[in-house]
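ERR on first pass: missing label on line 2. Operator R.T. fixed the label and resubmitted. Corrected input:
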Amino acid sequence: MELFFAGILLFTAGGILSEFINYRYKPAVFLIFSVSGTVFTGYAALLCLTGQCTPQITFYMNFPFGETGFVMDSLSSLFVFIFSAVYLPVSIYSKGYLEHYNDGKKERLHYICLSLLISSMMLVVTVTNAIMFLVLWEIMSLSSFFLVSFENEKNDVYNASINYLIAMHVGVVFIISAFAYLSYRSGGNSFNDFRVVLNSGKGIADLLFFISFIGFGTKAGFFPFHSWLPKAHPAAPSHVSALMSGLMIKTGIYGIMRFLTLIDSPSKTIGFTLLAISSFTAIFGILYAMNDRDMKRQLAYSSIENIGIIGMALSIGILGFAFNNIYMSVLGFTGAILHIINHSLFKTLLFLASGSVYLNTHSKNMESMGGLIKKLPYTASFFILASVAISGLPPLNGFISEFFIYYSMLSGIKTSSVLFVTMIAGFSLLALIGAIAIIAFTKSSGIIFLGSPRNGNTDHYHEKISMVIPMGIIAVLMFLAGILPHKVIGFTSGISAQLVKADTSAEFIKIISLASDLSIALVVFCGILVTVTFFRVIKYRKEKVGYFKTWNCGYQGITPRMQYTASSFSADTVYVTKPILFHRKVLVKPEGIFPGKSALKTENIDATDIVITFFIKKWIEKFFNAVSVIQSRTAQQYVIYVIVFIIVTFVWVIWIK
Amino acid sequence: MKILLILNILIIIIVPLLFTGIINKTKAFWGGRKGASIFQPYYDFIKLMKKSEVISTVTSPVFFLFPVISLSTVIFAGFLLPLIDHKAVISFEGSFIMFAYILALGKFFSIIGALDTGSSFEGMGAAREAFFTSIPEPAFFIILGSISIFGEINSFENLFGLYHAGSELSLLIVVLTVIILFIILLVEGSRIPIDDPNTHLELTMIHEVMVLDNSGPSLALIQYGAAMKMMILSSLILNFIIPYSAGPLLYSAYYAAGIIAAAFTIGTVETLTARFRIVRIPDFIFTIVGMSLMVMFIILLYYYGGRR
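pass 2 clean. output:
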């Protein structure tokens, strides 16, 4: 625990220090401090996961905090461990990425915000005092807001960051109200005090869960609170979007999980509702990801999808608990935790790779790319690798978590008929999500990196070694997590026990043996793959290979623009899903005898944005227009208001009290 | 037991091209022709392996790797499937989930391999393949997920074991499942009425257009993989039909007859039906999702009928 705080201090010190030194040394100083910080926090978390640390430290603070505890139980230490493991490569990458902007002005507040973001994220997942939690939560939101608005001279970046700020504050209102009620009823500020209130009545836990779910769900990106995500992620610099999508949205999931540990027996209502919301989130996210042409927005939508999958797994855990099927419950929670780990790895890798692309192309539009694998071979291979992982395909880590989620659903079908229907529905939805994910990610990796360049000259494209190495680290981690699932699951045993609130060692032995079976099978597959590739390469060495241009049915005048584009690739699927996906089409027709300019612009718009901009915003405007009647610009009128207010208060106090 | 497993591996590796040979022979038979020998695909395979290859200058290593990866995935999928003596080479709980996903991995790489050539035709084929093969996925999971309720654990082997101890309703389940899996076979194997492997117009192709630029050994591996995929999916169907009580010898006899019958059926279907128009294909594939839901409800009645 002391090591953990030492790490946090190093982060903060590095951030503050880099503010006061010459901009040339800033990245180096920042890098040294963040790397050593992650070593400390990561090691502390590892110690706590294996049960070799003092799990709790309590500080006595002044009003309003009171007793402020920081705890490193299994749940917290796992999150701290993930954060450390992913932040290490990202901080190395950020050095390479920011060299591009290195003029001493742009990244002024950047480093301090980065270190504030990572320290507040780590503290949020360890703190047990509700008020301190909210303060840290706010620091997290604000520092990430400044990070998102890095290129704030661009209009869309500015708008996106303001949108993000508002969404975060709307969300936090719900968390505050849930905590305020709990604090009022229990008379204490610590999460353990809340436990009593949450388990006092029947409906109270459900109600408070859903109120806080709105708050945490806004952070995590659950439908319909996700609308900030596809705007903020493309706007932020890539290492920031990697941090936000890979790690920060997981604090929302952490909040939900922490809340669940406080409820002794989460009800079926919570389970079924969460399952419905999550599956809708996942389907919605992947459909939009499949449809999008902006490479970073696509990744943002895919984050929404993955958050939905994590939510599905969590709700299976809850349902298993509610239906007294502990095995299913443990499997569900294990699947959720694995998917949290895995998503933070492959999504970070995808964002880092897309950042490397962005620095070269200065564009996020897939349609203008193509053939980048020749100029950016490492970036391309890592992107394709991460795409395989995020589509849940073996032998990489995404498959492991999806496998456990599938398996947890299967283990519940014998329990009751309701569960049978629900689980089979979830089962097929997950299969559909996986199938659409394949469309989405074959599209992005195929259109961005393969084929021939759509946009002219790519000769000056290059990749930096300082950005490739961090990607490599994550790719190795991803592969290891895929091929050695039983080792990873070994770390998570404490968490599911914490969530199920029972001894789960018997179930865990089964799960670990299943995972090692899986690992053997994957190793066999890798063996087959290597053997076949080996023989193929030997054959290739011997044969006489001719090189010629691509066959185009005899047509000679081909240009790169004739390639299949991202929109045409997804057109078939989009056609079927038209009722759910919305498009805006701006068509300027050529008119007159001498037709002038003509243009066609299509844009994919988020369904929730339509609801927000056309309905909710209108109601809010109407309301404030109505209220504005009492507003005038004369001072006298306000003085009258004050006098009236005082008189009314006076009368109220005298007559009624 | 070891011998049986080796036999299984040999079946997976050797039989596939024979399967294509039988299909072609059947089509020739219905067409009133004498047709090529059923061993013709082997000769073609050897011929292609001997040829030298032409590779497009646009492509990257992905193009070279995708036939290799898709072949490996199909071989591994075969290892997961119970064959003679109801034993799979690799068996563990939930192996059918891996079966579906490992085939999807092959699909992933063949799609990006097609996009790698930068040809608009191959892009078109890739888009169609991605879309059409995504629809049967939920159906496959609905039926296998529902059926796994009969097994104590959900590996392929036990799945079929307890499932055969059934009644009239289980006959219904078998019939529907076999039809669903057969349609999945037609979709995944790109056969008529979904796709015509022998068509000569690139605009109407699906799977065949994706491999326009492959030649020589690459093409050999692709054709071999496609044949193996069809054979494995038909073995999956046969697992639903062959009685579970059959011993190794009887099973082998049933299996040999079944594989020939499956190839014959595919050939017959190809002779009797015409290719669908592209726009009609999604409708056709969607029907199996509905049928799989029927299977699910039958199993719901079967297992939970009369109790809550």
